[in-house]
Specification:
Elements (H helix, E strand, L loop, with lengths): L11 H11 L4 H20 L4 H26 L7 H21 L7 H24 L4 H21 L1 H4 L5 E2 L15 H25 L1 H11 L1 H6 L4 H27 L1 E2 L6 H14 L4 H23 L5 H26 L3 H20 L2
Antiparallel strand pairs: 1-2
């Protein structure tokens, strides 16, 4: 009886190819691909917008760093913070001091901006670690009171030490011009948008990977039930400190990018109102979702334009118009928050997700 010949085993390369074909795309590569696509989209849009709209889009990107960091802290880890405006001020003032120190030494190359941004993030990480250690011991209104005190104290320090921070007038932020290779008439606002977009996308990639990692799972466990998380072997206090440090670093980067755009920094730009706006923005956008932070950042930039539009509809005296512009944004934010919480408890992103899931199901149900 003749023996049948066994089929030859597959080569290593064929087996590896099949294994590679069935293996899911790593999270980092997927996030990098999304970030690259978003960067190309912003690059294309920047050529279609005028200078003012480029500046507004860059401001959205800067605020997005802060709202994304606050989403990690409040939405994923469950810690309330009313002091993120002060953390943004820390990053902005650190960048201004570094840029002025480089300018005094005659160093104006564009590469120093990267060093200044790094110093701003490190300084905010240090402040965030100090506040986070104290915040890990507090709950509820005590935690809100601590972060509220930070929001009040940090801008006050810039006025108290006016020899360093120049008081209410603030500091100028010297910036290098756009690279000469882009042309003499290249809009500087477009170059600012490119720089801020790159920094923001890198920040979002880091945060998105953190959310998908074991740290993100620990954040959600602590948010849902601290006792159960502790019984599962999670160090609750250390997890909360890590969340606060990550959120502070993102806020510091956002504040530094705002200083890059405005080319100046003053305590009036980082008051308590900004901290309240940031918190309401992430709630309206959708807590616990980084995509919701995008909606919140857009709202933070669109609100001043809406305020000016509403004010122009009425014939008011200059004093009345100034009071209206000062109080109207907070009123609009509050009304929007009430409407969103009633109509869409999951925020704008939660509503978008539900619609995106319902429309294909309805289309399949009505398809002949």
């Amino acid at each position: 009886m003749s023996a049948t010949r066994a089929p030859a085993p597959p080569t290593r390369s064929a087996a590896a190819n099949r294994l590679r074909a069935g293996r899911p795309v790593p999270t980092l590569l997927r996030h990098l691909a999304v970030a690259a696509g978003a960067g190309l989209l912003v690059l294309a849009i920047s050529y279609q917008l005028d200078s003012f709209r480029n500046f507004q889009l860059a401001t959205v990107a800067a605020y997005l760093c802060a709202t994304a960091g606050l989403t990690i802290l409040t939405g994923l880890c469950g810690q309330l913070s009313l002091g993120h405006g002060a953390l943004m001020a820390t990053g902005a003032y650190t960048l201004a001091l570094c840029q002025n120190a480089f300018a005094d030494r005659g160093v104006t190359a564009g590469g120093v901006l990267v060093l200044s941004l790094g110093a701003a993030v490190l300084a905010t990480v240090a402040v965030g670690a100090l506040v986070g250690v104290a915040a890990a011991r507090l709950r509820g209104p005590y935690l809100a009171g601590l972060t509220l005190a930070v929001a009040v104290v940090v801008p006050a320090l810039t006025v108290t030490f006016d020899g360093v921070f120049n008081g209410e007038q603030g500091l100028a932020v010297p910036m290098a011009p756009a690279p000469a290779s882009l042309g003499v008439y290249f809009p500087y606002e477009r170059w600012q948008l490119w720089v801020v977009t790159v920094a923001t996308l890198l920040c979002l990639v880091v945060l998105a990977n953190l959310v998908r990692s074991r740290y993100g799972r620990a954040f959600r466990a602590v948010r849902d039930d601290e006792v159960a998380a502790r019984l599962a072997g999670i160090h609750v206090a250390r997890t909360q400190v890590i969340a606060f440090v990550v959120s502070a670093a993102s806020a510091g980067l956002g504040g530094a990018l705002l200083a890059v755009l405005a080319q100046s920094v003053s305590p009036g730009a980082f008051g308590l109102t900004l901290s309240l706006f940031l918190l309401m923005a992430v709630v309206i956008g959708g807590l616990g979702r980084l995509a919701g932070a995008v909606w919140g950042a857009v709202l933070l930039v669109a609100l001043p334009d809406l305020t000016h539009t509403v004010t122009d509809l009425f014939t008011l005296s200059p004093a009345a118009a100034q009071r209206l512009e000062g109080n109207l944004p907070l009123a609009i934010f509050g009304c929007t928050l009430i409407v969103v919480m009633i109509a869409a408890p999951g925020g704008v992103q939660g509503l978008v997700s539900r619609l995106a899931g319902a429309l294909p199901a309805r289309w399949r149900r009505h398809r002949p």
